[in-house]
Fold this sequence. Notes:
The chain has 308 residues and is mainly alpha-helical. The chain is built from 11 helices and 2 strands.
Amino acid sequence: PPPFPPPPPLRSVAAAPLPLGALRRTPAAGPSMSLVALPAAKAALASIAPGMAPLPYALIAILPSMLGFYKSDYGVSYGYGTAMAMAGLLTLPHCVTVMAQLHALLYVAYGVRLNLFLAYREMNIPSMRAIKEKIEERVTARGGRLTRTPFIATCGLLYFCMAAPLHITGPARALPPAAVPFVLLGWAGFLVAALGDAQKTLAKVGQPNKLVRDGLFGLCRHPNFTGEFVLWTSSMVAGILTAVAAGTLVSAGAWVALSLLGALGMDYVLAKAATGLEKRQRDKYGSEPGYEEWIEGTWAGVTLPGTT
């Protein structure tokens, strides 16, 4: 046997990677390697959870929107609900805190509730089926199905942006106290919208031309649009506040910008819908007794300025 034990095998740099750190010069000892903490880099890395890559979120935003090629309104109804529910489901496994889970579950609950409501209305209310058929006829008259591509792509982009706050709150170590009320406010908006849809649908059973003016509609003339406006605005604010508190406003700047774009885009759609409904209701019910008193004693919700 050799008189000395063999030397230990050499390890390559790749086999023994250095921990996260940086090189710096130590003036007293000359050039040397010293591992130093990089808080900014760690914070940036902590803001991205493994598996929360943009591509899956882009796919679950655009693929449901493509239902619009089958029926034009499906891209903004079932496609919309499916995209929101899938965004929440994709985020749930990566949520670090309970509040982040509640935020992701809000998307799931919204999407599932919306799709169930739409399916019930389509299957059980003939007037709604008639409206959908008229929309399809009008859109088909404008050209072939491929002419819908720009609109469908825009819907997919909007849904992708609306899910952006989840990329901030999901992997966050903790949601700041200022963001928590906005997650809860989002749930409140969800409930108001759901109850508004339910009340209006039940009130119109057998009376499709009835103007609903009691219950939630005795306080707000469009609680479904208003509740949804609160939901998406609150989601966006919760995401931005979380980024500010975590010090990742710059590193997560893309998600912050997309969050703003998504919320503002959907809020505009909701305000435009409420504005249009205000006009149609006035044209149809403006001469009914008590209509003006109802208008004066209730809030329209968020509408476009100068159009109501």
